[in-house]
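User: Here's a chain of 206 residues. Predict its fold as tokens.
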Amino acid sequence: MFIAGPTGVGKTTTIAKLAAEEIFINKKKAAFITLDTYRIAAVEQLKRYGEILESPVHVAYDEFDLMRLCENEADADIIFIDTAGRNYLEKGMSVELLAYLKRKEQAELFVALSLAAKASDLIQIIETFEPEVITGLILTKKDETRSLGTLLELLYYTDLPIGCVTTGQSVPEDICFPDKAKLLNWLSVEVTNANGSSARFARAEE
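Assistant: Prediction complete.
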């Protein structure tokens, strides 16, 4: 499972939350690989989570390292791969990573996006990825915004599934896996608060 997204969106912390869910709830064996060699703190942060979760952590410097490390951890049920943050408004995914995703059928890519950001910017970020390689979205920082207008616009713009939503910095607690009913409930509360009265979504059944 690759997690990609802009710098500062919370990819590494989200990976720790997802791994804790797999290890403690689903009883799976996990491993970590980071491609973020630009920030020393990011590597150290992931290594700390690896120690807590008693899971191996590796650093890949290129595609060949990535393939070798994935093969070495073949007995893991799931491998979480932390990618380097970048400005996706200016450039898209690296050619090497895109090629790897297209070759590996079992690989999944989730794009992490902050609900505290402007919807128009997030839509542009999604458009920099080739649609066929995106498995779904991870929405972060729900706790850092009082408005869910960004969520509403994303749901209208794309039919990509929402893998999870993070609601704070605590690991592993601040994460949820909302279904359609949960998402609609969040939005109905948003509209109710904005209008001071109940509201109904005409497209709730779509």
